[in-house]
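Final paragraph of the annual report: two paired records, presented back to back.
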Amino acid sequence: MIETVRCQWAVEHPELITYHDEIWGRPTRDDRAIFAAYAQCVLHAGLLWTAMLKKRPVFAAAFADWDVAKIAAYDGTEIDRLMHTEGMMRNLQKITCIIKNAGCYIEVQREFGSFADYIWQFARQPIDGTRDEAKARAVAEKLSDDLKRRGFKFAGPASAYGLMEDIGLVNDHDPHCFRYLAND
């Protein structure tokens, strides 16, 4: 039997294997999936990645399955509900950040037709981060600057880079990983 070779970090926990194999680094142009990835980057800060992955179903349910229009309309009542949702990260700053970003997200969709069209303009095709890390970092800086200019919060270069990895804008799979070539 041939063993599947994965990125080293992905074999540490079962949750990581599924995330690695099915989501991380897989190019997507689905606006809902991109918003979910961005929101989860916000929620992930300060959490172990495995803890965040275990909470993904809770987050999706609490945030209307990542329906950006619904999230942008959240008011104090919804914030209170989120702060009291079982299993939710009870961090007011992160919750309000996601709601604010949803409004900014909608503005970008209006301007570009989709958020995917907006974000993929920064690199028309996935950047190979293992071969050209400098280019990937430069694109993350440009994306970060533009997101901030548009009013997004939690939009620093590290967050932008993490989002780019998650949605496949940058391919940081180990060259020996079965997903590395799958993204070509």
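The closing record of the year follows.
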Amino acid sequence: MTPYQRGSSFATPVVLNLLIFNFLFFMSTIIAQQRGIDFFSLFGLPWIKSENFRLWQMVTYMFMHANWLHIFFNMFALWMFGNMLEMVMGSKRFITYYFITGIGAALVQWFIHYLRYHGLDNAIDAYIQNPDPDVFLYIANKYFGRIANPQYINEMYTQLKLFSHEEILVNQSIEVLQQLRNGLYDIPMVGASGAVFGILLAYGMIFPNDYVYVYFFIPMKAKYFVILFGVLEFFLGISNRGGDNVAHFAHLGGMLFGLILLLIWKKRR
């Protein structure tokens, strides 16, 4: 007797249901957008300080995807590696593993977010108390370099330098910083990537010598495949490149929580 009930020849039951729910969420998001409803604000996961944050988003963000390419690669990886893992783990343990790694990915990304932006509120408060053009430019470049329009920031900085005593201009600069902060906090994290990277880690640990075909052509043992992607995500995460909207540390968080969970289960057994 197998530890799971067979769902279909296409996929094991939990994997099959996850695929269905993800695509249902994705299509619902498209339909809602056409009707002026923003599902990303409702079900995506913003920073905990955001006014849009709700507790359920810790789970629902895993079913939200930005575009067709995003959902395709996540679901393909889930199908490719998840079926074997569910057959080995059993359905109950697999679904537990999936959601714990997904939630763990969000927690790690939040922690990185805190390290990067924990001084932002105090910096803006200090600027409000003592407006200084150089401080304005420093805050804008340090915290909002990835999302702010540099030309607009530099123009405002120049105006503040020339007319530093103009109250209207100073208030406008304060409003700009506050809007940028709120926008930063409201950016939602979406996608099943954290859980998928957790699945990838488990596959590499349980089937280390199985071959995975990188880009469908290059054979590589699963254990090396996992290491390669882990190192790549780490360097992409610390590079913090402008325009890069991928939550690389969430991917690493999924792998980290997956490793911890597998070690706990191994010790118990």
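The chain has a mean pLDDT of 89. This concludes the annual technical report; the extension proposal builds directly on these records.
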